[in-house]
Write a structure and sequence with these properties.
Nop domain-containing protein, Serum Albumin, Chain A, Domain 1, Helix Hairpins, mainly alpha
Length: 180
């Protein structure tokens, strides 16, 4: 995330204190200059212990100063990060509602995102339903499969379905059987 890179020159300790990117962007936007970090209340964004660490680090940090123009650019970048994360959440909610309506069984098995990708790669819901199970297993790995067949190497065992949480939770020995 670029906000971490740019603001890291001014207050590098913040990267270690605040791990979440959204919380980081909100904290940078609220704090602005490192010197003002000790006077700002972060109770809406951060937990109490993280807020204490942040305020202590803001007081003792000795890194470079940032000019007002750079702070304006960093705040603008924070606004973009926050708006894109909000947009992503809205898209995920939309996808979740549509997938539960259109393909509830597929959604229950592999999740909303993997199900939507399978439908897209399969050519639609009806075409996906007509495909055999062996094709479903490697759907999304066509380039890898064709490359392995050309070079006579071992073919791939998984495609998009490998990203499903059901397969991710399986024991490594059983992942192939679960994906089948």
């Amino acid at each position: 995330m670029r906000v971490r890179e740019w603001y890291g020159w001014h207050f590098p300790e913040l990267t270690k204190i605040v791990q979440d990117n959204i919380q980081y962007a909100k904290a940078v936007k609220l704090m602005s200059d490192r010197a003002g970090g000790a006077n700002v209340d972060f109770f809406e964004i951060l937990s109490e212990d993280v807020e204490v660490k942040l305020k202590e680090a803001a007081v003792i940090s000795i890194k470079t100063k940032v000019c007002e123009l750079d702070l304006m650019n960093i705040k603008g970048l924070c606004d973009q990060v926050l708006s894109l994360s909000e947009y992503r959440a809205q898209l995920y909610d939309f996808l979740k509602s549509k997938m539960n309506t259109i393909a509830p069984n597929l959604t229950a098995l592999v999740g909303e995102l993997v199900g939507a990708l399978l439908i897209a790669y399969g050519g639609g819901l009806l075409d996906l339903a007509k495909k055999p199970g062996s094709t479903m297993q490697i759907l999304g790995a066509e380039k890898t499969l064709s490359g392995a067949l050309k070079t006579k190497h071992v073919t791939c065992k998984y495609g998009l379905i490998y990203d499903a949480s059901l397969i991710g939770k399986a024991v490594p020995k059983l992942k192939r059987k679960v994906s089948q």
